[in-house]
Amino acid sequence: MYSIELMKKRHSVRQYLNEPIDNDKKEVLNKIIEDINLKQNTHIQIVYDEPTAFNSFMAHYGKFENVTNYIALVGKDEEKLGYYGEEIVLKAQEIGLNTCFVALSYNKNKAKSKISILQNEKLFCVIAIGKGKNHGMPHHSKKREDVLQLVGEKPSWLDDAITACLLAPTALNQQKFIISCNNGDVDVKIKGVGPYTTLDLGIVKFHLDCIKKANNQ
């Protein structure tokens, strides 16, 4: 699992250097995606050195630059894809790459032509990945008390859990989730309505689970 320190270093990056991903880093990415697909029955795919999906009006409007590598979150379970997509994102950060979840600002038809989508599967979003021109900026977060529902006992690691959840990327930075702590039992669920809240829930749950496992929960 991954630390809060690593989560703090990861920010969404939209501008990339026009450089290929090193082969050793490709091996790491290929391996983690292969393992996740095998164990979780997902169909996540990575596309290297392919510029057409981000050569569109929407991509330029979204200020994406030199995106030639992307991870396609393909499968049946949106929340699961958010969860394991974030695992890949943090692994990428760990090996010195930058990333950005992208829901709309790319050419979906071009991306679909480069990947495989089986019956009953869907391409939920892609993740831009590569060597960033910069390391991005921290996103604005809600107040801690606005995302916590506390009843009874407060475990010693709850503050770390809240921090981790607020560091998770969400669509439009909407952070439509609530962390419930019921006598030490901590979970996270969707609160409110917004785009991609189910995918976001998976991302936030991965951050929460990192803290739980670090504290043997």
Overall structural class, as computed from helix and strand content, comes to alpha+beta
Low-pLDDT runs: none
Biggest pleated-sheet summary: 4 strands, antiparallel
Helix content: 25-40%
Number of helices: 7
Q: SSE layout and pairings?
A:
Blueprint: H1 4-9, H2 23-40, E1 45-47, H3 57-61, E2 70-75, H4 78-94, E3 98-102, H5 108-112, E4 122-130, E5 148-151, H6 158-167, E6 177-182, E7 185-190, H7 197-214
Parallel strand pairs: 5-6
Antiparallel strand pairs: 1-2, 2-4, 3-4, 6-7
Helix pairs in contact: 2-4, 4-7, 6-7
Report what the structure shows.
By secondary structure, the protein is an alpha+beta fold. The protein has 7 helices and 7 strands; from the N terminus they run ααβαβαβαββαββα. The strands form 2 sheets. The protein has a 4-stranded antiparallel sheet, with helices on one face. A 3-stranded mixed sheet has the order 5-6-7. Helix 2 packs antiparallel against helix 4 (78-94), helix 4 crosses helix 7 and helix 6 (158-167) runs antiparallel to helix 7 (197-214). The chain is globular, with a radius of gyration of 17 Å. The two termini are 13 Å apart.
Describe, in short, the structure shown.
The protein has 217 residues and is an alpha+beta fold.
Keywords, please?
217 residues; alpha+beta; three-stranded mixed sheet; 7 helices; 7 strands
